[in-house]
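Hey, resending since the last one bounced:
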Amino acid sequence: MQSSRIASVLARASSRAAAVARPAARRNLSSAADAAKGKVKEAAKTAEAAAEAAKGKAREAAKTVEGAASSAAGAAKSAAGGGGGGGGGGVILFGLLAGAGGYYAYTQGMLDSVLGKSDKAAEASSGDAKPAGKAPVPAYAAKVATAVESLIDDDDNRGPLLVRLAWHSSGTYAKGGSPAGGSDGARMRFSPEAKDGANAGLEKARALLEPIKKAHPDISYADLYTYAGAVAIEHMGGPHIPFRFGRSDFRSEAEIASAKAAVASGRLPDAAQGASHIRDVFYRMGFNDQEIVALSGAHTLGRCHTDRSGFEGPWSFAPTTMSNQYFDLLNKEIEKPGYWTVRKWDGPKQYKDPTGELMMLPTDMALIEDDKFRPYVQLYAKDEAAFFKDFAAAFATLLHLGVDEAKLGETA
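The structure tokens again:
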């Protein structure tokens, strides 16, 4: 038991060190970006100056060509007015005109070359304009991420709470359902989602993010609730979660009702159930068995509270650090049956480890009891990199379920 506590302390320390380093890295990246923008602006000015200089040379050359043509015409008249030797005058006229034309062709070719280069330089200075398409990552994205990281640095228990907010905001999606549900609209701010028992305690997460929303009013609540979860996962040592902005918000309960977009309770997982229920919930969203197990790995983070779910305790010894420890602990039951036993208490059925400090829910144990889920538990217990890769892909999919593709911008 003592070694487990030491491991927990070391894990927390490692997580804290990573948390301290990330904001500094983000600030350095921001400074580098600003410096790069300055260089781009300087290059643009240089290109514009080159273009103007080229235009000036073109005008001078044109005047020279016109002068040569006028001289040729004057010479031709003189030759014609000189009487006899008209044949020679014709030759002289042809020679002069040919000379002027050749000079014009030469200078025009030179100018085309110069102007061609100048046009390309000017094109490069136009801000690398892109054709109309997906909106770029918002300018406020990095600042919002830094603000979320600061919240977690002040209290590392906030990280898992923000992940839960993102999960529950998105997990109401029903493929082909009416309404479809999902994160778009930020419906959790209003009934019935706000009062859904499965979302108990998430009002605290929403309140934490309110100052960030006020500081960056352009970000929608729907984007903020989901992006904060993605940032939290990475800040707690997990993988980068690809994220796209573009969600919009409902402004009131009445607006939700008018749009017939209210999502009734019952779409989120019930922790007291087994494998059949898990599949019903996740298949409805379009996930397969491998993705179900990968997403369940989020239980490495956080803990249950009796005043919210009725259950009590953390799943891992380092509940504020993203890792594959959840699978390692489940796998112990496969390697040594009886590692997890039913806890004797007045609350709902849950399991405890030999130390009595950790717990597992019936839905967790279903992952090792089911023949199709079990191999993925064993894989992720041995290979954290594989877990992180699969989790990042599945969680990114979850956050974007039900959001119109046309609304979403470029990937952050």
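The beta strands are 303-304, 313-314, 341-342, 351-352, 359-360.

Sorry for the duplicate.
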